[in-house]
Amino acid sequence: MEQPSKQEENARFISRLTKKTLALILAGGRGSRLKNLTDWRAKPAVPFAGKFRIIDFPLSNCINSNIRQVSVLTQYKAHSLILHIQKGWSFLRGESGEFVELIPAQQRLSGKWYQGTADAVHENLDIIRHHAPEYVLVLAGDHIYKMDYGPMLAAHASSEADLTVGCIDVSLEEARGFGVMSTDENQRITAFNEKPENPQPLVDDPNKALASMGIYIFNTKFLLEQLRKDASNKSSSHDFGHDIIPSIIDDYRVFAYPFNKQREGDILKDRYWRDVGTIDAFWEANHELVGVTPPLNLYDKVWPIWTYQEQLPPAKFIFDDDDRRGMAVDSMVSGGCIISGAKITRSLLFSNVHLHSGSILKDTVVLPDVDIAENCRISKAVIDKGCAIPEGMSIGQDPEEDKKNGFYISERGVVLVTPEMLKQNIHHSR
């Protein structure tokens, strides 16, 4: 009998591991650095890339990694997030033990809302025990990336780790917003500091530091023990980065799993991972998608990003007169859009956006259900869902005028416009 190849053995090994894994996606955060963009939705529910939401990326990673038991923990203004997951992620078969389940904050063990990332998991210990996984994969619900979690699980099991932390190289400036770690030659973590003022640089690159991606693999028994211990600590902030990881690295087997590089032929390239936690980062990550060869390939059939989307007609461009021509250049335009005698350049339009004659958009991200009236001029902006831009309005042309109109202007000059800023209180009862 022909013996299975090493590659086949590795695939089977990973497959067994993924079947024994429960993924917990922490999707309860507001994301306050996104300013008014999260006034009425949780950060994981924020639209991204024309037709998706941020939560679709970790969910798609789970499904594509063959991890089919997924719990999504929600809290802050979760209604749109819940609707999105119910509509778009209910295709798994419960009879086969597969699910994407929603777990709202329920004060199951205490009378308080979640106090930190570790507390969010601790509050749902009975649900974890009910599913009886061998491994628990804890994920942040607010990052944009593609990742096969199978090899990370294999590395965790092979190293006999108690905890494995997904990590990525970032600049020293960026590192101040992450958990930063140091490792030995075997990738064992020797130090971990959450959001340090002076991050420890890499040995081989003094301009970068090794940062946590908010991806953790725990042995289930070990996780339950540490969560109970942390819950009884009155001085703890009940956070994985602040409290649990620093407290265990000396006494337990805690390893880093580097995500940075992927091999394409003979070339090593950086993998795509974005924390779109600020208006600047959100605009840039969306804006770079309209490039000729963007770093995030949304057309990848091998690793598709799944989502829920309305059944909409194709985008339509109308009028071809010299002074009124509907056109888009270096742009992405989603279904249901009508470009009526307007011009867009280097911009990304989500679904059901209507641009009227004479309007010009440049370097702008327009979320769903926006109506832009005639003769508007908009540059380097993010227009929130449901906005109705009045005729002749200029956005991103004059900072003083933008401030006078009550718009938010980021450090890098991106203008955020929401319905409330336009005195259009679509979220309030009349």
TrEMBL record:
Domain called Nucleotidyl transferase: residue spans: 23-289
Pathway in which the depicted protein is active: Glycan biosynthesis; glycogen biosynthesis
Reaction(s) the record says it catalyses: alpha-D-glucose 1-phosphate + ATP + H(+) = ADP-alpha-D-glucose + diphosphate
UniProt site positions, description: Could play a key role in the communication between the regulatory and the substrate sites: 75, 113
Keyword 4Fe-4S among record annotations: no
Top-rank taxon, per record: Bacteria
EC number: 2.7.7.27
The protein's enzyme class: transferase
InterPro entries per record: ADP-Glc_PPase, ADP_Glu_pyroP_CS, GlgC_bac, GlmU/GlgC-like_hexapep, NTP_transferase_dom, Nucleotide-diphossugar_trans, Trimer_LpxA-like_sf
GO BP terms: glycogen biosynthetic process
Domain called Glucose-1-phosphate adenylyltransferase/Bifunctional protein GlmU-like C-terminal hexapeptide: residue spans: 313-417
Positions with a binding annotation for alpha-D-glucose 1-phosphate: 114, 179, 194-195, 212
Record keywords: ATP-binding, Carbohydrate metabolism, Glycogen biosynthesis, Glycogen metabolism, Nucleotide-binding, Nucleotidyltransferase, Transferase
Molecular function as annotated in GO: ATP binding; glucose-1-phosphate adenylyltransferase activity
Assembly, per entry: Homotetramer.
Protein family (similarity comment): Belongs to the bacterial/plant glucose-1-phosphate adenylyltransferase family.
Entries under HAMAP family matching the protein: GlgC
Task performed by this protein: Involved in the biosynthesis of ADP-glucose, a building block required for the elongation reactions to produce glycogen. Catalyzes the reaction between ATP and alpha-D-glucose 1-phosphate (G1P) to produce pyrophosphate and ADP-Glc.
Name of the featured protein: Glucose-1-phosphate adenylyltransferase
Native organism: Candidatus Venteria ishoeyi
